[in-house]
From TrEMBL:
PANTHER family: BILIVERDIN REDUCTASE A, BLR3664 PROTEIN. This is Gfo/Idh/MocA family oxidoreductase. Pfam families: GFO_IDH_MocA (PF01408), GFO_IDH_MocA_C3 (PF22725). Residues 130-234 form the GFO/IDH/MocA-like oxidoreductase domain. InterPro entries: Gfo/Idh/MocA-like_OxRdtase_N, Gfo/Idh/MocA_Oxidoreductases, GFO_IDH_MocA-like_dom, NAD(P)-bd_dom_sf. GO terms for molecular function: nucleotide binding. Residues 4-121 form the Gfo/Idh/MocA-like oxidoreductase N-terminal domain. The lineage of its organism: Bacteria, Pseudomonadati, Pseudomonadota, Alphaproteobacteria, Hyphomicrobiales.
Length: 349
């Protein structure tokens, strides 16, 4: 089967990572790099592919089969629209857009044109997340009652040299927590309401450095998420799974997610399943088994999926409409913290 010709738009941190994955794999061909900077041109030279200053120049020069939009959030809408208008499927990085209005405009344009748009919530492509979803959805845990998530890690001081990262919107809620919100929706089901407290007590920047969040899910399960980017800790999905090779090997396996139900509990990412082999009750012996899973790189699987979607062989694992719901739930964290009360989610209904 011929390789799909893929353009990467935005050759920064994640754009370069996507280019590496495409170049290393055998499902797609890196066809172009689009990024107006000298650094962007250097990335094109590195991969030996044509370089364009913007998506219009790329589209004028000839067509590509699919595009990855890995530019800053506020450009996701206009850049993606250029491809949608040409009927070219897009993988747009998370968050789908910087505002709900933009996210809805992108979703409407994609639906009207009948063009597939995927959102880069790459964790959905991790076999661990898929196994957990299967276990929860098949009822192995019984009725889900409680989920605890720790997302604590340390961003070094140098990270904050860029001004926007010290400002509202540049913090762990929109950059990191959004991954948890999407993972919870994917594994456990829809979020109905959000409560939150945020804090900037450690760094004192305008942006939060920590947040404590309570989610109520459809079906009644309660979720707590503690996120902090100023804590010395290994308890994060990113460090525990090493989805990205930027994270070092931990000396021992750790978990970041604890899912409890009326029949069993599950930890992630180690997939330890705890349940009673005999009589159930807190004074009875409880047993642990580890659910087997074949580990795989979610970023590579995401590219394979994009190719399959572009060929019409698969439906998006996360569509524009779905990515908009994740954005709505994440933005509600800031709103709930601001008003000091729960925010009910309507998802545009
Ligand atoms: N899924 C993930 O794991 C993940 C990880 C990091 C970032 N992201 C997301 O990816 C996006 C990019 O983040 P980043 O950390 O790589 O940012 P970055 O600042 O490192 O890179 C952005 C690049 O886009 C280029 N650019 C800006 N405007 C452009 C335009 N109009 N056309 C073409 N290129 C343009 C910049 O020159 C820069 O090279 C963000 O939406 C971010 O939230 C996702």
């Amino acid at each position: 089967m011929a390789k799909l010709r893929m353009a990467v738009v935005g050759a920064g941190a994640i754009g370069r990572a996507h280019a590496e994955v495409i170049a290393a794999g055998n499902v797609a061909e890196l066809a172009a790099i689009v990024d107006p900077t000298d650094a962007g041109r250097a990335v094109a030279v590195h991969f030996g592919v044509p370089w364009f200053v913007d998506q219009d120049a790329l589209l004028a020069a000839g067509t590509v089969d699919a595009a990855i939009v890995a530019t800053p959030n506020q450009t996701h809408l206009p850049v993606s629209l250029a491809f949608i208008e040409r009927g070219i499927p897009v993988l747009v990085e998370k968050p789908i857009a910087s505002t709900l209005a933009e996210a809805r405009a992108l979703t409407a344009a994609a639906e009207k044109a009948g063009v597939a748009v995927l959102v880069g919530h790459h964790r959905r492509h991790n076999p661990i997340a898929r196994r957990a979803r299967d276990l929860v959805r098949s009822g192995t845990l019984g009725r889900l009652t409680s989920v605890s998530v720790l997302y604590t890690f340390l961003k070094p001081d140098s990270y904050f040299e860029l001004d926007w990262r010290r400002r509202a919107g540049g913090g762990p809620v929109l950059i990191n927590l959004i991954h948890e919100i999407d993972l919870i929706r994917f594994i456990c089901g829809e979020i109905e309401s959000v409560q939150a407290v945020t804090s900037n007590a450690v760094r004192g920047f305008e942006v939060e450095d920590s947040a404590a969040v309570i989610l109520r899910l459809a079906g009644g399960a309660l979720v707590t998420v503690n996120v902090s980017d100023t804590a010395v800790a290994p308890w994060s999905w990113d460090m525990a799974t090493r989805e990205s090779q930027h994270y070092p090997q931990l000396p021992v396996p750790v978990n970041s997610h604890y899912l409890s139900g009326t029949a069993a509990s599950l930890t992630l990412p180690q997939l330890d399943l705890w349940r009673y082999p005999g009589k159930a009750g807190w004074h009875e012996p409880i047993a642990r088994e580890t659910v087997p899973v074949e580990r795989a790189d979610p970023y590579a699987e995401q590219i394979r999926h994009l190719c399959a979607v572009a060929r019409g062989e698969e439906q998006p694992v996360i569509s524009a409409a779905d990515g908009t719901r994740t954005l709505e739930a994440t933005l509600a964290v800031h709103e709930a913290a601001r008003i000091g009360a729960p925010v009910a989610l309507s998802y545009g209904q």
